[in-house]
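pls design
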């Protein structure tokens, strides 16, 4: 029988695999790290290469996956905007503007739902295909 630490590690790796597959499905692979060809696994994971310090990679994203219990205050804010956005027939989005002492040079960030993010990536990928543009990563 597995102990608690082994179960947590297994859940963490499964979460990385699901996230990597999701990124490959919606964003496509990074051509420098073709899944299953050495560095990235077939699921887009690169977490086994600790020097990269990321868990998954896709055409646009370097992704760090955290499977953690969300701080109660943040969870309350997120649930509130999910409910209020639904009432308005909108998609929820939460913005963070860090005020930490070491936040200089660190960009603000938005949280959107996974389904909305998938829709946006699908639209972007379709546009690139229709216009012949091959953009790898950020410009």
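designed seq:
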């Amino acid at each position: 029988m597995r102990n608690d630490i082994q179960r947590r590690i297994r859940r963490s790796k499964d979460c990385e695999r699901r996230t990597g597959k999701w990124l490959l499905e919606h964003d496509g692979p990074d051509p420098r790290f073709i899944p299953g060809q050495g560095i990235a696994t077939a699921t887009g994971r690169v977490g086994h290469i600790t020097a990269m310090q990321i868990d998954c990679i896709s055409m646009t994203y370097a992704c760090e996956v955290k499977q953690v219990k969300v701080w109660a205050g943040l969870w309350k804010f997120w649930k509130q905007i999910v409910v209020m956005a639904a009432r308005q027939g909108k998609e929820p989005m939460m913005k963070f503007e860090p005020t930490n002492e070491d936040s200089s040079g660190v960009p603000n960030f938005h949280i959107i739902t996974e389904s909305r993010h998938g829709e946006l990536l699908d639209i972007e990928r379709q546009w690139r295909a229709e216009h012949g543009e091959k953009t790898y990563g950020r410009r």
